[in-house]
């Protein structure tokens, strides 16, 4: 696939998102979801790293998304049959089923089963799209449509628990990032409880940090934990990369701590102490394998390491990411107190 076609499908994918989140009709929202799905499948198939998995990965993604879209469409049709007494009586249940379909689309636990399997076989750039861009529409539709706190709490707790516990035993970096994405999905769902602005802050910071990590892994062509022990990077670049990893885990005083701090504070104000406790405990578990990734960077002494000049040429933004990770929290604190 040439660059023009890549750009065409990516713009088509963004168009699907814009149609879904700006439409006043649920049918147009469903159509936007379908455009987004059909545009992402050719992007998946443009995976130059693991060509033998083309059909398997795209077929898995298509089946999951098509099944969830079918449930979503069925719920829309039934919710619009307001003249039917039985449908009106159970409208809350159909609304819950529609939201469940959205949870499946974004890979929230316990409907997460497809995320690790698909991400394991994708390139890093495609994984980045799946972890960030593809969560926008389901998240915003949930924000507009959810009305049951117990339902949301179930998916929040499931996502943060499965995301943290599932990543402990993984050695494949794709799967580690997949379970990390599931965990952060739980945090983003929690942010939807308060306001769209809280979610937007979390999403932007999560996207920036994920981009810094995944672009580095993509340029270094690393897919396994054991490869982290002999990366061709000097200590400055290793330190910058380690900061991004720890920031993704929400370790203070780095940038990734800001959205988690906001969510914990808001959950406490709303007296959701149990949910708060679970989310804090699972964050500590997440930090365990983030620390494992960071420590693995510094195992070999510097005199055995070579500097990969191509890496520097392709990572001109790494100093900016390092500055944001270190100074993000102090700068935001100053802005809040002004």
Automatic annotation (TrEMBL):
Gene Ontology MF term list: NADH dehydrogenase (ubiquinone) activity
Transmembrane portions of the chain: 61-81, 93-115, 127-144, 150-169, 200-223, 235-258, 278-300, 320-337
Subcellular location: Mitochondrion inner membrane
Protein's membrane topology: Multi-pass membrane protein
Domain NADH:quinone oxidoreductase/Mrp antiporter transmembrane: residue ranges: 23-285
The protein's Enzyme Commission number: 7.1.1.2
GO biological process: mitochondrial electron transport, NADH to ubiquinone
GO cellular component: mitochondrial inner membrane
InterPro entries xref list: Complex_I_Subunit_2, NADH_UbQ_OxRdtase_chain2, ND/Mrp_TM
Source organism superkingdom: Eukaryota
Catalytic reaction list: a ubiquinone + NADH + 5 H(+)(in) = a ubiquinol + NAD(+) + 4 H(+)(out)
Keywords: Electron transport, Membrane, Mitochondrion, Mitochondrion inner membrane, NAD, Respiratory chain, Translocase, Transmembrane, Transmembrane helix, Transport, Ubiquinone
Top-tier EC class: translocase
Record's function text: Core subunit of the mitochondrial membrane respiratory chain NADH dehydrogenase (Complex I) that is believed to belong to the minimal assembly required for catalysis. Complex I functions in the transfer of electrons from NADH to the respiratory chain. The immediate electron acceptor for the enzyme is believed to be ubiquinone.
Family: Belongs to the complex I subunit 2 family.
Protein's name in the database: NADH-ubiquinone oxidoreductase chain 2
Source organism of the structure: Eucinetus haemorrhoidalis
């Amino acid at each position: 696939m040439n660059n023009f076609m890549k750009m065409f499908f990516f713009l088509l994918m963004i168009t699907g998102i814009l149609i879904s989140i700006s439409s006043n009709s649920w049918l147009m929202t469903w159509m936007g979801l379908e455009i987004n799905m059909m545009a992402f499948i050719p992007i998946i198939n443009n995976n130059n790293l693991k060509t033998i998995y083309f059909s398997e990965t795209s077929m898995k993604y298509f089946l999951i998304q098509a099944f969830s879209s079918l449930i979503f469409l069925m719920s829309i049709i039934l919710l619009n049959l307001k003249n039917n007494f039985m449908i009106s009586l159970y409208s809350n249940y159909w609304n819950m089923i529609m939201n469940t379909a959205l949870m499946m689309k974004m890979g929230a636990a316990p409907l997460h089963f497809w995320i690790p399997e698909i991400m394991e076989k994708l390139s890093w750039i495609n994984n980045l799209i799946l972890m960030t861009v593809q969560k926008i529409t389901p998240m915003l539709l949930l924000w507009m449509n959810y009305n049951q706190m117990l339902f949301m709490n179930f998916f929040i707790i499931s996502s943060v628990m499965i995301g943290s516990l599932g990543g402990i035993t993984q050695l494949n970096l794709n799967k580690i990032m997949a379970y990390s994405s599931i965990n952060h999905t739980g945090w983003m769902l929690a942010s939807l409880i308060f306001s769209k602005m809280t979610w937007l802050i979390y999403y932007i910071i999560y996207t920036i940090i994920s981009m810094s990590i995944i672009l580095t892994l993509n340029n270094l062509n690393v897919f396994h934990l054991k490869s982290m022990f002999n990366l061709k990077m000097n200590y400055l670049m290793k330190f910058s990369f380690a900061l991004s990893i720890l920031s993704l885990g929400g370790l203070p005083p780095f940038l990734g701590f800001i959205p988690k701090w906001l969510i914990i504070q808001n959950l406490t104000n709303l007296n959701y102490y149990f949910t708060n406790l679970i989310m804090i405990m699972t964050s500590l578990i997440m930090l365990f394998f983030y620390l494992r990734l960071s420590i693995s960077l510094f195992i070999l002494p510097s005199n055995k390491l070579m500097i990969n000049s191509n890496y520097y040429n392709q990572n001109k933004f790494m100093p900016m990411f390092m500055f944001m990770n270190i100074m993000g929290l102090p700068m935001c604190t100053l802005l809040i107190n002004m």
